[in-house]
Amino acid sequence: MTDASEDRDELVGSRLRELAVPPEDPLFFARLERQRRTHRRRLTVAAVALLAAASGTMAAAALHSSDRPVRSAVWAFPSSSWKPVHRPIGNVVHLRWTGGLLGPAYGNQAAATVTLSLSGGSVCSLASLARWVQRHERLEADSQVSGASGTCWATLRIGHTAITGQQKSELVRLLDAASFGGRIAS
Amino acid sequence: MRAIEQEIRDNHADLRRFAYRMVGDAADDVLQEAYLKALRSWNRFLGAPSRRRPWLYRIVYHCAIDELRRRKPTSLDRIDHTTDSPDADLLIDFAGAFAGLPAPQRAAVLLVDMIGLNYDEAALVCGVPRGTVASRLSLARGALRRQLEQERLPL
Are B94 and A28 an interchain contact pair (Cβ–Cβ within 8 Å)? Predict the structure, then answer.
């Protein structure tokens, strides 16, 4: 058989097809759908928390929403940990990268943690961040927010699986770009 | 139902067979991870409809390779080789020989000989040039042919 040919080895193919495959879990697609919803909710929770922090809203505001992901956000981020933050300056915001990725300190399997200092609100930058998380499907976003006067500190915990060096670099690049990419608030 | 969901449903049986021969008992986990990725990244897929199937296989292939990298090298024996065929013993030997092939060679044989993808599609799935697929196929088929000859099965 030459490299150029596209012949199939029918005997090999039929032998492979004859080999048994265990019966499928009848709930496979149901589980898939559940996981899909859970993932969406986690992403939304993270986005809601960050956006709320950036725009200076209080957790109480989220309580009034009937949207399920927002309720989850309230559950995940109790109102006692929320403090007012700076209002956005027009549409231009300052997203400052102040933290480091702490993953290696906990071993390769540890979640990576980044700390953002948000003064003002950046829908655009935060949406970029959410998109970054979404692009790396194996990573899950889980945020916690604690208050400090005048500044909101948001900790975005990414992943319950290992995060690769490339992903870390990419995240750092994104955050650096958001902070120092020419859209710094005056 | 979105096109990607239909594509998954249409190809699920073959994808599962492919995943099982690649990673054994972890096949359903691999498929679940792969399908979630496919569903999430579907809106960024810009290829022609004819590329959907190889694209889906590509995601499953990469998830399977990730799974194999995570585990110990000897865990391939988790693949169940049982069969109801009258040639059961021969098939079990064949399955053993197949499981002993390196993962990229197994993938090439599965994609081309079992699933029926052409060389270009298989190359797209594995992310290698067409010639590499041909060479992997040649090596794998050689090993399998020797196994079949040992068992005095006509090829």
Answer: no
